[in-house]
């Protein structure tokens, strides 16, 4: 069942805190609108908390305690609420799955794009795949990093460049510093450069 369609596991705790807030607010002679303005939140937020439909978060509990002079009663109640009542309703289903999971996987967009990855970086990426790759499979995935030295290499055998041609990119490095940075271009750009270099 969708998390919004079912009763929260500890809904009674949220309602209890909501009733406390409503009682303290009424005794202080404040309306929901007045408390919301003083606390810097929307009126709907106060109404939802009082009705037990939204959790009272710790920071807001402390602010309201100060405003209503309740001597930390709301903050204490929030600190002792079950974990399920400290998260948004929409996230409860995810939290349940996380508690039952044997392993966690997630997508991160703040990583080095494939066209810019070194072989060492690619090895590390494939080593953390789930299901896990065997060493042989990792080598197969990164075998495209097969560097070739230019036929115009100097007699010393090191004063030149090396390339690793991939279907989606061409990597270029200094043969004298194979652990150093690489330069990456699209195959079409490399083909145009090679054609120009051949006639120069």
From TrEMBL:
- SUPFAM superfamilies from the UniProt entry: lambda repressor-like DNA-binding domains (SSF47413)
Q: Which Gene3D superfamilies match?
A: lambda repressor-like DNA-binding domains
Q: Which SMART domains match?
A: HTH_XRE
Looking up InterPro entries in the UniProt record yields: Cro/C1-type_HTH, DUF397, Lambda_DNA-bd_dom_sf
Record domain HTH cro/C1-type: where: 21-74
**Coiled-coil residue spans:** none
Q: Pfam families, per this entry?
A: DUF397 (PF04149), HTH_31 (PF13560)
Name of the protein in question: HTH cro/C1-type domain-containing protein
- The species is Streptomyces badius
């Amino acid at each position: 069942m969708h998390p919004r369609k079912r009763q929260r596991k500890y809904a009674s705790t949220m309602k209890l805190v909501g009733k406390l807030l409503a009682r303290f607010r009424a005794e202080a002679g404040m309306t929901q609108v007045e408390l919301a303005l003083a606390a810097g939140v929307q009126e709907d937020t106060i109404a939802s908390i009082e009705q037990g439909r939204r959790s009272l978060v710790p920071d807001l509990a402390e602010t309201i305690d100060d405003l209503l002079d309740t001597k930390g009663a709301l903050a204490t109640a929030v600190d002792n609420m079950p974990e399920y009542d400290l998260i948004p309703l929409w996230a409860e289903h995810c939290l349940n799955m996380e508690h039952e999971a044997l392993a966690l996987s997630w997508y991160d967009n703040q990583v080095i794009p494939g066209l810019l990855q070194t072989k060492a970086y690619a090895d590390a990426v494939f080593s953390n795949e789930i299901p896990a790759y065997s060493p042989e499979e990792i080598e197969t995935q990164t075998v495209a990093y097969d560097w070739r030295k230019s036929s115009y290499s100097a007699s010393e055998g090191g004063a030149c460049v090396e390339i690793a041609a991939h279907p989606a990119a061409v990597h270029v490095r200094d043969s004298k510093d194979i652990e150093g940075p690489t330069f990456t271009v699209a195959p079409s750009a490399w083909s145009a450069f090679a054609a120009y270099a051949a006639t120069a």
